[in-house]
Amino acid sequence: MRVKCITYSCTFICILLSACSRQAEQGQAVAKVDDQPLTLEMVRGMVDTTRGISETQVKVLAEQWIVSELLYQEARKRGLDNSDDVVKKVEDARRQLTIAALLDREVLTGTSAGLGAAEIERYYNNHKEEWRLPGTVRRLSFAVFADLDDAKEFRSGAIEGRGWVESLKKFRNSNKLISSTDSMFYTSAELYPAELWKVAQSLGVDEVSFPVKTSAGYFVLMLLGEYPEGTAAPLAYVEDEIRNRLLIDQRQKRYVEFIEQLRRQHSVQINLSGVAAGNDTVSAPTE
After folding, report:
1. Which of 47, 136, 208, 241 could disulfide-link to 10, CB 3.0 to 4.6 Å?
2. What confidence tens digit (pLDDT) does each residue in 63-110 have?
């Protein structure tokens, strides 16, 4: 509850920074419950103050913080903050957060440093059977224009000497080009609008299409590669998945090594004298 309370407070003050007076002092109380203030200083270190928030959100978040603070103060008045149950949960949370901080420093941080292109390619070659495509994949570049004449001009430049990249540069900083995508993989379900897939099917590799009219504008496509169903996916298509696999393997290895290192530094014992053989229950101690 306190974590949520602080989060709401942070966002709340961030709102005031953008929607209200920007000259407020750091220690200004934005909201109060009795003598407990919610200040600008409390929030600035916990929230991205570059994002603006509306006045309506300010009111909602302020009320959420007030409700949280009222409940917290009432719980403390009843002594619940020092109850055995709460104290145990706080200690359990502290233990887990401390362990997580240690693992983040010793296991997670820096473990991707050795994942080079050669290692990724080696893993790909050793597991090619895993990369069989369930459906056809095409690698495409496309540019979208608002006007048909601009789309035609771009296509002419792309196929008559300047090439796709140079032709695109001419339109890059103009309002004639709506958007462009360079060398992306698509399945039939991922390419939208649907009519673009039919156009892509008709192209040869490195061939540029005529402008295709859609509700989003005039598309010009270039096919860079086609990979039929059942064939091995190209390395670029599965590179991110391979990198994630290798990263998980690397972290698991580092984790095992780190635990073994800690074991060597401590005296570790397991005593099963109170456990009956072949039984999952623990016997009660005898006097």
Report:
1. 47
2. 887 888 999 999 999 999 999 999 999 999 999 999 999 999 998 886
